[in-house]
Amino acid sequence: MGLSGQPIFIMREGTERTRGRDAMHNNIAAAKVIAEAVRTSLGPRGMDKMLVDQFGDVVITNDGATILKEIDVQHPAAKMMVEVAKTQDSEVGDGTTTSVILAGELLKRAEKLIEQKIHPTVITEGFRKAAEKAIEVLEEMSIKSGIDDKVGLKNSAMTCMSSKLVSESKEMLAEICIEAIISIAEKSANGDWVADIDKVQIQKKEGESIDDTSLIKGIILDKEVVSPGMPKIAKDAKILLLQSAIEIEKTEFDAKLQITSPEQIQQFLDEEERMLRTMVEKIVNSGANVVICQKGIDDMAQHFISKAGIMAIRRVKKSDLEKLSKATGGMIYTNLNDITQDKLGFAGLVEERKIMNDSWIFIEECKDPKSVVILIRGGTELIIDEVERAIHDALCVTRDVVEDQKIVGGGGAPEVEAAIQLRKYAQTLGGREQLAVEVFADALDIVPKTLAENAGLDQIDVLMKLRAAHQAGKKFAAHDLETGDIIDDMMAIGVVEPTIVKIQAIKSATEAASMILRIDDVIAATKSAGGPPGMPPGMGGPPGMGMPPGMGMGGGMPPMM
Q1: How far apart are CA 377 and CA 113, in angstroms?
Q2: Residues with a known catalytic role
Q3: What is the CATH number of domain 16-144+409-521?
Q4: Neighbour tally for 272: CB within 10 Å
Q5: What is the reported pTM?
Q6: pLDDT in tens, 381-437
Q7: Which residue of 106, 200, 295, 486 is surrounded by the most CB atoms within 10 Å?
Q8: Among the listed residues 26, 89, 129, the one whose alpha carbon sits nearest the alpha carbon of residue 516
Q9: Distance between CA atoms of 464 and 476, rounded to whole angstroms?
Protein backbone atom coordinates (compact mmCIF):
# COMPACT_ATOMS: atom_id res chain seq x y z
CA MET A 1 0.00 0.00 0.00
CA GLY A 2 1.27 3.43 -0.86
CA LEU A 3 1.15 6.10 1.86
CA SER A 4 1.18 9.07 -0.50
CA GLY A 5 -1.34 11.78 0.41
CA GLN A 6 -2.11 10.27 3.83
CA PRO A 7 -1.62 12.62 6.81
CA ILE A 8 0.94 11.62 9.48
CA PHE A 9 -0.31 12.08 13.00
CA ILE A 10 2.47 12.94 15.48
CA MET A 11 0.09 13.82 18.32
CA ARG A 12 -3.33 12.50 19.25
CA GLU A 13 -5.98 13.61 16.77
CA GLY A 14 -7.89 16.60 18.08
CA THR A 15 -4.85 18.11 19.85
CA GLU A 16 -4.93 21.89 19.45
CA ARG A 17 -1.76 23.84 18.86
CA THR A 18 -1.33 27.60 18.87
CA ARG A 19 2.05 29.02 17.90
CA GLY A 20 4.02 32.25 17.79
CA ARG A 21 2.22 35.57 18.00
CA ASP A 22 -1.22 33.98 18.30
CA ALA A 23 -0.18 31.99 21.38
CA MET A 24 1.30 35.11 23.00
CA HIS A 25 -1.73 37.28 22.26
CA ASN A 26 -4.12 34.60 23.57
CA ASN A 27 -2.21 34.23 26.83
CA ILE A 28 -1.88 37.98 27.36
CA ALA A 29 -5.59 38.49 26.61
CA ALA A 30 -6.57 35.84 29.19
CA ALA A 31 -4.29 37.41 31.84
CA LYS A 32 -5.73 40.90 31.11
CA VAL A 33 -9.28 39.61 31.59
CA ILE A 34 -8.38 38.28 35.06
CA ALA A 35 -6.72 41.59 36.00
CA GLU A 36 -9.79 43.55 34.81
CA ALA A 37 -12.08 41.27 36.85
CA VAL A 38 -10.51 42.35 40.15
CA ARG A 39 -9.45 45.87 39.22
CA THR A 40 -12.63 47.61 40.41
CA SER A 41 -12.22 46.16 43.91
CA LEU A 42 -8.93 48.00 44.67
CA GLY A 43 -8.76 50.63 47.39
CA PRO A 44 -11.15 52.18 49.92
CA ARG A 45 -13.58 53.13 47.16
CA GLY A 46 -13.42 49.70 45.52
CA MET A 47 -16.58 47.68 44.96
CA ASP A 48 -17.44 44.15 46.09
CA LYS A 49 -18.12 41.08 43.94
CA MET A 50 -20.93 38.58 44.43
CA LEU A 51 -19.85 35.08 43.45
CA VAL A 52 -22.34 32.23 43.13
CA ASP A 53 -20.97 28.70 42.73
CA GLN A 54 -22.59 25.68 41.04
CA PHE A 55 -24.34 24.70 44.27
CA GLY A 56 -25.87 28.15 44.71
CA ASP A 57 -23.57 29.14 47.60
CA VAL A 58 -22.93 32.88 47.67
CA VAL A 59 -19.71 34.74 48.56
CA ILE A 60 -19.61 38.55 48.72
CA THR A 61 -16.07 39.95 48.92
CA ASN A 62 -13.53 42.39 47.51
CA ASP A 63 -10.54 40.26 48.51
CA GLY A 64 -8.57 39.52 45.32
CA ALA A 65 -7.42 36.04 46.37
CA THR A 66 -10.94 34.98 47.38
CA ILE A 67 -12.49 36.30 44.14
CA LEU A 68 -10.00 34.42 41.97
CA LYS A 69 -10.24 31.26 44.08
CA GLU A 70 -14.03 31.19 43.73
CA ILE A 71 -14.00 31.81 39.95
CA ASP A 72 -13.56 28.50 38.13
CA VAL A 73 -10.84 29.55 35.65
CA GLN A 74 -10.10 27.24 32.69
CA HIS A 75 -7.49 29.06 30.58
CA PRO A 76 -3.92 28.00 31.54
CA ALA A 77 -2.53 31.58 31.46
CA ALA A 78 -5.45 32.79 33.56
CA LYS A 79 -4.68 30.02 36.08
CA MET A 80 -1.17 31.45 36.41
CA MET A 81 -2.69 34.81 37.39
CA VAL A 82 -4.76 33.05 40.04
CA GLU A 83 -1.53 31.51 41.35
CA VAL A 84 -0.06 35.03 41.69
CA ALA A 85 -2.90 35.98 44.05
CA LYS A 86 -2.57 32.71 46.02
CA THR A 87 1.19 33.21 46.47
CA GLN A 88 0.72 36.81 47.60
CA ASP A 89 -1.98 35.75 50.06
CA SER A 90 -0.01 32.88 51.61
CA GLU A 91 3.28 34.81 51.75
CA VAL A 92 2.20 38.21 53.14
CA GLY A 93 -1.60 38.04 53.45
CA ASP A 94 -2.40 41.34 51.71
CA GLY A 95 -1.88 43.08 48.36
CA THR A 96 -3.45 40.29 46.29
CA THR A 97 -5.45 42.67 44.05
CA THR A 98 -2.40 44.92 43.54
CA SER A 99 -0.20 42.00 42.45
CA VAL A 100 -2.77 40.75 39.91
CA ILE A 101 -3.52 44.13 38.30
CA LEU A 102 0.22 44.89 38.16
CA ALA A 103 0.90 41.57 36.36
CA GLY A 104 -1.96 42.34 33.94
CA GLU A 105 -0.61 45.83 33.23
CA LEU A 106 2.95 44.54 32.67
CA LEU A 107 1.61 42.08 30.06
CA LYS A 108 -0.62 44.70 28.42
CA ARG A 109 2.34 47.08 27.94
CA ALA A 110 4.76 44.28 26.96
CA GLU A 111 2.37 43.34 24.15
CA LYS A 112 3.05 46.71 22.51
CA LEU A 113 6.82 46.06 22.66
CA ILE A 114 6.32 42.63 21.06
CA GLU A 115 4.42 44.34 18.22
CA GLN A 116 7.50 46.56 17.75
CA LYS A 117 9.53 43.36 17.11
CA ILE A 118 11.30 43.38 20.49
CA HIS A 119 12.08 39.82 21.58
CA PRO A 120 10.25 38.53 24.71
CA THR A 121 13.58 37.47 26.30
CA VAL A 122 14.86 41.07 26.08
CA ILE A 123 11.60 42.31 27.67
CA THR A 124 11.76 39.78 30.53
CA GLU A 125 15.42 40.67 31.22
CA GLY A 126 14.45 44.36 31.35
CA PHE A 127 11.56 43.52 33.70
CA ARG A 128 13.94 41.61 35.99
CA LYS A 129 16.33 44.57 36.24
CA ALA A 130 13.43 46.97 36.78
CA ALA A 131 11.96 44.80 39.56
CA GLU A 132 15.33 44.66 41.34
CA LYS A 133 15.67 48.47 41.11
CA ALA A 134 12.05 49.03 42.28
CA ILE A 135 12.64 46.79 45.33
CA GLU A 136 15.83 48.75 46.07
CA VAL A 137 13.88 52.04 45.91
CA LEU A 138 11.18 50.66 48.25
CA GLU A 139 13.81 49.48 50.75
CA GLU A 140 15.46 52.93 50.72
CA MET A 141 12.22 54.87 51.26
CA SER A 142 11.01 52.56 54.06
CA ILE A 143 10.69 53.77 57.64
CA LYS A 144 11.70 51.61 60.62
CA SER A 145 8.85 50.14 62.62
CA GLY A 146 8.29 46.98 64.68
CA ILE A 147 6.54 45.44 67.65
CA ASP A 148 7.08 48.53 69.86
CA ASP A 149 5.69 50.95 67.26
CA LYS A 150 2.01 50.72 68.27
CA VAL A 151 1.02 53.66 66.03
CA GLY A 152 2.66 52.09 62.96
CA LEU A 153 1.06 48.70 63.68
CA LYS A 154 -2.39 50.23 64.17
CA ASN A 155 -2.18 52.39 61.04
CA SER A 156 -1.03 49.40 58.95
CA ALA A 157 -3.95 47.24 60.18
CA MET A 158 -6.48 50.08 59.69
CA THR A 159 -5.20 50.86 56.15
CA CYS A 160 -5.54 47.18 55.26
CA MET A 161 -9.18 47.11 56.47
CA SER A 162 -10.22 50.51 55.07
CA SER A 163 -11.19 48.91 51.74
CA LYS A 164 -13.23 46.14 53.39
CA LEU A 165 -16.81 45.80 54.55
CA VAL A 166 -15.60 46.32 58.15
CA SER A 167 -14.13 49.80 57.49
CA GLU A 168 -16.60 51.41 59.95
CA SER A 169 -15.22 49.25 62.82
CA LYS A 170 -11.60 49.18 61.61
CA GLU A 171 -10.10 50.95 64.64
CA MET A 172 -11.59 48.50 67.14
CA LEU A 173 -10.70 45.46 65.01
CA ALA A 174 -7.14 46.77 64.43
CA GLU A 175 -6.58 46.94 68.19
CA ILE A 176 -7.84 43.34 68.58
CA CYS A 177 -5.47 42.14 65.82
CA ILE A 178 -2.46 43.98 67.31
CA GLU A 179 -3.15 42.61 70.80
CA ALA A 180 -3.49 39.09 69.37
CA ILE A 181 -0.19 39.26 67.43
CA ILE A 182 1.73 40.81 70.35
CA SER A 183 0.40 38.01 72.62
CA ILE A 184 1.68 35.21 70.39
CA ALA A 185 4.89 36.87 69.07
CA GLU A 186 8.11 35.22 70.25
CA LYS A 187 11.80 35.95 69.79
CA SER A 188 13.69 33.43 67.68
CA ALA A 189 17.21 32.14 68.45
CA ASN A 190 18.83 34.93 66.40
CA GLY A 191 16.86 37.66 68.20
CA ASP A 192 14.26 38.37 65.47
CA TRP A 193 10.55 38.46 66.26
CA VAL A 194 8.41 35.63 64.88
CA ALA A 195 4.60 35.62 64.94
CA ASP A 196 2.80 32.46 63.80
CA ILE A 197 -0.78 33.47 62.98
CA ASP A 198 -1.90 29.82 63.24
CA LYS A 199 -1.76 30.42 67.00
CA VAL A 200 -4.61 32.94 66.58
CA GLN A 201 -7.77 30.83 66.43
CA ILE A 202 -10.80 32.36 64.68
CA GLN A 203 -14.30 31.43 65.89
CA LYS A 204 -17.43 32.74 64.14
CA LYS A 205 -21.01 32.99 65.30
CA GLU A 206 -23.94 34.90 63.83
CA GLY A 207 -25.81 37.32 66.08
CA GLU A 208 -24.91 40.64 67.72
CA SER A 209 -22.97 43.05 65.47
CA ILE A 210 -19.40 43.41 64.13
CA ASP A 211 -18.63 45.75 67.08
CA ASP A 212 -19.23 42.82 69.48
CA THR A 213 -16.23 40.93 68.04
CA SER A 214 -13.83 40.24 70.91
CA LEU A 215 -10.36 38.89 71.71
CA ILE A 216 -10.19 36.05 74.21
CA LYS A 217 -6.80 35.47 75.82
CA GLY A 218 -7.20 31.73 75.88
CA ILE A 219 -9.23 29.23 73.90
CA ILE A 220 -12.85 28.53 72.93
CA LEU A 221 -13.82 24.86 72.69
CA ASP A 222 -16.83 23.88 70.63
CA LYS A 223 -17.82 21.45 73.41
CA GLU A 224 -19.91 21.32 76.57
CA VAL A 225 -19.36 19.98 80.07
CA VAL A 226 -19.79 16.17 79.98
CA SER A 227 -22.26 15.83 82.86
CA PRO A 228 -25.08 18.13 83.98
CA GLY A 229 -24.03 17.58 87.64
CA MET A 230 -20.65 19.24 87.08
CA PRO A 231 -20.01 22.95 87.74
CA LYS A 232 -20.47 25.15 84.64
CA ILE A 233 -17.95 27.76 85.80
CA ALA A 234 -14.51 27.55 87.45
CA LYS A 235 -12.54 30.60 88.60
CA ASP A 236 -8.73 30.54 89.02
CA ALA A 237 -8.89 27.20 87.25
CA LYS A 238 -6.08 24.65 87.53
CA ILE A 239 -6.41 22.72 84.29
CA LEU A 240 -5.31 19.13 83.71
CA LEU A 241 -4.68 18.41 80.01
CA LEU A 242 -5.01 14.68 79.39
CA GLN A 243 -4.32 12.72 76.22
CA SER A 244 -5.45 9.31 77.54
CA ALA A 245 -9.00 8.12 78.31
CA ILE A 246 -10.46 8.01 81.84
CA GLU A 247 -11.84 4.55 81.17
CA ILE A 248 -10.95 0.91 81.81
CA GLU A 249 -8.92 -0.20 78.80
CA LYS A 250 -10.36 -3.12 76.92
CA THR A 251 -7.98 -5.98 76.15
CA GLU A 252 -6.61 -5.84 72.63
CA PHE A 253 -6.70 -9.63 72.10
CA ASP A 254 -9.56 -12.06 72.61
CA ALA A 255 -9.84 -12.71 76.32
CA LYS A 256 -12.39 -14.97 78.06
CA LEU A 257 -13.67 -14.53 81.59
CA GLN A 258 -15.09 -17.61 83.22
CA ILE A 259 -17.61 -16.59 85.85
CA THR A 260 -19.26 -19.37 87.83
CA SER A 261 -21.20 -17.46 90.47
CA PRO A 262 -23.09 -14.15 90.94
CA GLU A 263 -20.49 -13.07 93.53
CA GLN A 264 -17.80 -13.14 90.86
CA ILE A 265 -19.82 -10.76 88.68
CA GLN A 266 -20.06 -8.40 91.64
CA GLN A 267 -16.32 -8.71 92.28
CA PHE A 268 -15.63 -7.93 88.63
CA LEU A 269 -17.83 -4.79 88.76
CA ASP A 270 -16.35 -3.76 92.11
CA GLU A 271 -12.84 -4.02 90.67
CA GLU A 272 -13.79 -1.86 87.68
CA GLU A 273 -15.29 0.71 90.06
CA ARG A 274 -12.17 0.63 92.26
CA MET A 275 -9.90 1.24 89.25
CA LEU A 276 -12.00 4.20 88.07
CA ARG A 277 -12.17 5.58 91.61
CA THR A 278 -8.34 5.35 91.83
CA MET A 279 -8.02 7.27 88.54
CA VAL A 280 -10.34 10.04 89.77
CA GLU A 281 -8.49 10.20 93.12
CA LYS A 282 -5.24 10.87 91.25
CA ILE A 283 -6.95 13.77 89.46
CA VAL A 284 -8.40 15.13 92.74
CA ASN A 285 -5.03 14.82 94.52
CA SER A 286 -3.31 16.81 91.76
CA GLY A 287 -5.39 19.85 92.75
CA ALA A 288 -6.99 20.22 89.29
CA ASN A 289 -10.53 21.60 89.17
CA VAL A 290 -10.89 21.36 85.36
CA VAL A 291 -10.06 18.25 83.29
CA ILE A 292 -9.80 18.50 79.51
CA CYS A 293 -9.48 15.07 77.92
CA GLN A 294 -8.67 14.16 74.30
CA LYS A 295 -10.46 10.82 74.59
CA GLY A 296 -13.52 9.43 76.41
CA ILE A 297 -14.57 9.58 80.06
CA ASP A 298 -16.43 6.56 81.49
CA ASP A 299 -19.96 7.19 82.87
CA MET A 300 -18.96 6.01 86.33
CA ALA A 301 -15.81 8.17 86.24
CA GLN A 302 -18.06 11.14 85.30
CA HIS A 303 -20.09 10.43 88.45
CA PHE A 304 -16.98 10.44 90.68
CA ILE A 305 -15.61 13.60 88.99
CA SER A 306 -18.98 15.34 89.50
CA LYS A 307 -18.98 14.40 93.20
CA ALA A 308 -15.49 15.93 93.53
CA GLY A 309 -16.84 19.21 92.07
CA ILE A 310 -14.50 19.08 89.05
CA MET A 311 -15.49 20.33 85.57
CA ALA A 312 -14.64 17.85 82.78
CA ILE A 313 -14.64 18.19 78.97
CA ARG A 314 -14.00 15.17 76.71
CA ARG A 315 -13.16 14.36 73.08
CA VAL A 316 -11.22 17.57 72.47
CA LYS A 317 -9.20 17.67 69.23
CA LYS A 318 -5.45 17.12 69.51
CA SER A 319 -4.76 20.49 67.84
CA ASP A 320 -7.02 22.23 70.41
CA LEU A 321 -5.22 20.43 73.24
CA GLU A 322 -1.88 21.72 71.91
CA LYS A 323 -3.28 25.26 71.68
CA LEU A 324 -4.56 24.92 75.26
CA SER A 325 -1.08 23.90 76.36
CA LYS A 326 0.34 27.08 74.77
CA ALA A 327 -2.43 29.26 76.20
CA THR A 328 -2.54 27.95 79.79
CA GLY A 329 1.09 26.87 80.16
CA GLY A 330 -0.02 23.35 81.15
CA MET A 331 1.70 20.11 80.20
CA ILE A 332 -0.19 17.47 78.20
CA TYR A 333 -0.16 14.20 80.19
CA THR A 334 -0.57 10.70 78.79
CA ASN A 335 -0.41 8.93 82.17
CA LEU A 336 -2.30 9.85 85.36
CA ASN A 337 0.64 8.65 87.50
CA ASP A 338 2.88 11.42 86.12
CA ILE A 339 0.73 14.39 87.15
CA THR A 340 2.46 17.10 89.18
CA GLN A 341 0.73 20.20 90.51
CA ASP A 342 3.28 22.67 89.08
CA LYS A 343 2.67 21.42 85.49
CA LEU A 344 -1.09 22.08 85.49
CA GLY A 345 -2.40 24.86 83.25
CA PHE A 346 -3.88 28.05 84.66
CA ALA A 347 -6.81 30.21 83.50
CA GLY A 348 -8.61 32.96 85.40
CA LEU A 349 -11.98 31.72 84.16
CA VAL A 350 -13.35 28.54 82.57
CA GLU A 351 -17.04 28.80 81.75
CA GLU A 352 -19.70 27.10 79.64
CA ARG A 353 -21.73 29.73 77.78
CA LYS A 354 -24.61 29.47 75.34
CA ILE A 355 -23.96 31.35 72.10
CA MET A 356 -27.09 31.31 69.92
CA ASN A 357 -28.11 27.60 70.11
CA ASP A 358 -24.70 26.11 70.92
CA SER A 359 -22.87 25.62 74.21
CA TRP A 360 -19.19 26.53 74.09
CA ILE A 361 -16.46 26.35 76.74
CA PHE A 362 -14.59 29.65 77.18
CA ILE A 363 -11.13 29.38 78.76
CA GLU A 364 -10.06 32.98 79.46
CA GLU A 365 -7.73 35.24 81.43
CA CYS A 366 -4.61 33.16 80.90
CA LYS A 367 -1.43 34.76 82.31
CA ASP A 368 0.87 34.75 79.26
CA PRO A 369 -1.07 33.02 76.49
CA LYS A 370 0.85 31.95 73.39
CA SER A 371 -2.46 31.05 71.73
CA VAL A 372 -5.51 33.35 71.59
CA VAL A 373 -8.97 33.44 69.99
CA ILE A 374 -10.83 36.12 68.08
CA LEU A 375 -14.60 35.56 68.39
CA ILE A 376 -16.28 37.19 65.38
CA ARG A 377 -19.90 38.32 65.61
CA GLY A 378 -22.06 39.78 62.84
CA GLY A 379 -25.57 39.98 61.45
CA THR A 380 -25.42 37.19 58.85
CA GLU A 381 -23.12 34.37 57.77
CA LEU A 382 -22.00 36.31 54.67
CA ILE A 383 -20.99 39.30 56.79
CA ILE A 384 -19.11 37.10 59.28
CA ASP A 385 -17.19 35.40 56.44
CA GLU A 386 -16.11 38.79 55.04
CA VAL A 387 -15.13 40.01 58.54
CA GLU A 388 -13.01 36.86 58.91
CA ARG A 389 -11.20 37.63 55.62
CA ALA A 390 -10.60 41.24 56.73
CA ILE A 391 -9.26 40.12 60.14
CA HIS A 392 -7.01 37.52 58.47
CA ASP A 393 -5.51 40.25 56.25
CA ALA A 394 -5.07 42.61 59.23
CA LEU A 395 -3.38 39.86 61.28
CA CYS A 396 -1.01 39.11 58.37
CA VAL A 397 -0.17 42.80 57.90
CA THR A 398 0.52 43.26 61.63
CA ARG A 399 2.71 40.14 61.57
CA ASP A 400 4.59 41.49 58.51
CA VAL A 401 5.43 44.74 60.33
CA VAL A 402 6.47 42.86 63.49
CA GLU A 403 8.75 40.47 61.55
CA ASP A 404 10.07 42.73 58.75
CA GLN A 405 10.07 46.00 60.76
CA LYS A 406 9.65 48.28 57.73
CA ILE A 407 6.67 50.40 56.57
CA VAL A 408 5.94 52.84 53.72
CA GLY A 409 3.15 55.33 53.04
CA GLY A 410 0.16 53.91 51.15
CA GLY A 411 -2.31 55.29 48.62
CA GLY A 412 -0.11 54.49 45.60
CA ALA A 413 2.78 56.70 46.81
CA PRO A 414 5.47 53.95 46.76
CA GLU A 415 4.51 52.94 43.21
CA VAL A 416 4.73 56.55 41.89
CA GLU A 417 8.11 57.09 43.60
CA ALA A 418 9.46 53.77 42.27
CA ALA A 419 8.22 54.63 38.74
CA ILE A 420 10.00 58.02 38.78
CA GLN A 421 13.27 56.41 39.98
CA LEU A 422 12.95 53.67 37.34
CA ARG A 423 12.65 56.23 34.52
CA LYS A 424 15.92 57.79 35.71
CA TYR A 425 17.49 54.34 35.93
CA ALA A 426 16.32 53.50 32.37
CA GLN A 427 18.47 56.36 31.01
CA THR A 428 21.58 54.56 32.30
CA LEU A 429 20.82 51.40 30.31
CA GLY A 430 21.67 50.85 26.68
CA GLY A 431 19.76 48.94 24.03
CA ARG A 432 16.23 47.67 24.07
CA GLU A 433 16.18 46.77 27.77
CA GLN A 434 15.77 50.51 28.39
CA LEU A 435 12.33 50.32 26.74
CA ALA A 436 11.33 47.37 28.97
CA VAL A 437 12.35 49.28 32.12
CA GLU A 438 10.34 52.34 30.99
CA VAL A 439 7.35 50.08 30.33
CA PHE A 440 7.73 48.61 33.85
CA ALA A 441 7.71 52.15 35.28
CA ASP A 442 4.53 52.98 33.33
CA ALA A 443 2.92 49.75 34.57
CA LEU A 444 3.53 50.74 38.22
CA ASP A 445 1.34 53.81 37.63
CA ILE A 446 -1.67 51.46 37.32
CA VAL A 447 -2.02 51.42 41.14
CA PRO A 448 -2.61 55.20 41.69
CA LYS A 449 -4.59 55.35 38.43
CA THR A 450 -6.93 52.52 39.53
CA LEU A 451 -7.38 54.07 42.99
CA ALA A 452 -8.35 57.36 41.33
CA GLU A 453 -10.66 55.68 38.80
CA ASN A 454 -12.47 53.69 41.52
CA ALA A 455 -13.01 56.93 43.46
CA GLY A 456 -14.53 58.62 40.38
CA LEU A 457 -11.56 60.97 39.83
CA ASP A 458 -9.75 61.81 36.60
CA GLN A 459 -6.77 59.43 36.26
CA ILE A 460 -4.56 61.72 34.15
CA ASP A 461 -5.06 64.81 36.33
CA VAL A 462 -4.32 62.85 39.49
CA LEU A 463 -1.19 61.22 37.98
CA MET A 464 0.23 64.54 36.72
CA LYS A 465 -0.24 66.19 40.14
CA LEU A 466 1.29 63.15 41.88
CA ARG A 467 4.36 63.14 39.63
CA ALA A 468 4.90 66.87 40.24
CA ALA A 469 4.71 66.34 44.03
CA HIS A 470 7.17 63.43 43.91
CA GLN A 471 9.57 65.33 41.64
CA ALA A 472 9.56 68.03 44.35
CA GLY A 473 10.91 65.45 46.82
CA LYS A 474 7.68 64.44 48.59
CA LYS A 475 8.22 60.67 48.47
CA PHE A 476 5.00 59.77 50.35
CA ALA A 477 2.70 62.12 48.42
CA ALA A 478 -0.62 60.59 47.28
CA HIS A 479 -4.12 61.83 46.52
CA ASP A 480 -7.09 62.20 48.83
CA LEU A 481 -9.80 59.95 47.39
CA GLU A 482 -12.54 62.18 48.83
CA THR A 483 -11.47 65.47 47.21
CA GLY A 484 -8.82 64.51 44.67
CA ASP A 485 -6.32 66.90 46.33
CA ILE A 486 -2.70 65.85 46.84
CA ILE A 487 -1.64 64.99 50.41
CA ASP A 488 2.10 65.59 50.91
CA ASP A 489 2.68 62.79 53.39
CA MET A 490 0.43 59.73 53.68
CA MET A 491 2.33 58.66 56.81
CA ALA A 492 1.09 61.80 58.58
CA ILE A 493 -2.58 60.85 58.03
CA GLY A 494 -2.01 57.20 59.00
CA VAL A 495 -2.18 55.52 55.56
CA VAL A 496 0.59 52.97 56.00
CA GLU A 497 1.51 49.62 54.45
CA PRO A 498 4.23 47.06 55.22
CA THR A 499 7.15 47.32 52.76
CA ILE A 500 7.24 43.54 52.34
CA VAL A 501 3.67 43.53 50.92
CA LYS A 502 4.74 45.94 48.16
CA ILE A 503 7.97 44.04 47.48
CA GLN A 504 6.17 40.68 47.25
CA ALA A 505 3.56 42.16 44.86
CA ILE A 506 6.33 43.34 42.51
CA LYS A 507 8.17 40.00 42.71
CA SER A 508 5.04 37.88 42.09
CA ALA A 509 3.74 40.11 39.26
CA THR A 510 7.13 40.27 37.49
CA GLU A 511 7.72 36.53 37.62
CA ALA A 512 4.21 35.69 36.39
CA ALA A 513 4.38 38.25 33.55
CA SER A 514 7.85 37.01 32.50
CA MET A 515 6.69 33.40 32.45
CA ILE A 516 3.61 34.18 30.32
CA LEU A 517 5.66 36.32 27.89
CA ARG A 518 8.16 33.53 27.23
CA ILE A 519 5.45 31.11 26.02
CA ASP A 520 5.31 30.94 22.21
CA ASP A 521 3.67 27.56 21.73
CA VAL A 522 0.56 26.14 23.40
CA ILE A 523 -0.18 22.45 22.81
CA ALA A 524 -3.51 21.43 24.32
CA ALA A 525 -4.29 17.71 24.36
CA THR A 526 -7.84 16.48 23.91
CA LYS A 527 -9.68 14.77 26.72
CA SER A 528 -9.68 10.98 26.68
CA ALA A 529 -12.15 9.44 24.22
CA GLY A 530 -13.48 7.13 26.91
CA GLY A 531 -12.40 3.77 25.49
CA PRO A 532 -10.59 1.13 27.57
CA PRO A 533 -6.93 1.89 28.47
CA GLY A 534 -4.48 0.97 25.73
CA MET A 535 -7.13 0.96 22.96
CA PRO A 536 -6.01 2.85 19.86
CA PRO A 537 -7.88 6.07 18.98
CA GLY A 538 -11.11 5.39 17.19
CA MET A 539 -11.91 2.16 19.03
CA GLY A 540 -14.47 2.91 21.69
CA GLY A 541 -14.81 6.68 21.26
CA PRO A 542 -17.41 8.76 19.43
CA PRO A 543 -17.13 9.24 15.67
CA GLY A 544 -14.39 11.56 14.54
CA MET A 545 -11.96 10.56 17.31
CA GLY A 546 -9.39 9.09 14.94
CA MET A 547 -11.77 6.73 13.07
CA PRO A 548 -11.47 6.49 9.31
CA PRO A 549 -14.31 8.19 7.44
CA GLY A 550 -17.41 6.05 7.26
CA MET A 551 -16.51 4.13 10.40
CA GLY A 552 -18.58 6.21 12.80
CA MET A 553 -21.20 4.87 15.13
CA GLY A 554 -23.96 5.39 12.60
CA GLY A 555 -25.54 2.85 10.22
CA GLY A 556 -23.38 0.78 7.94
CA MET A 557 -20.77 -0.15 10.53
CA PRO A 558 -19.98 -3.87 10.49
CA PRO A 559 -20.81 -5.76 13.70
CA MET A 560 -17.81 -6.10 16.05
CA MET A 561 -17.18 -9.61 17.40
Answers
A1: 51
A2: 63, 96-97, 393
A3: 1.10.560.10
A4: 14
A5: 0.79
A6: 888 988 998 999 999 999 999 988 899 988 888 999 999 999 999 888 877 888 889
A7: 106
A8: 26
A9: 15
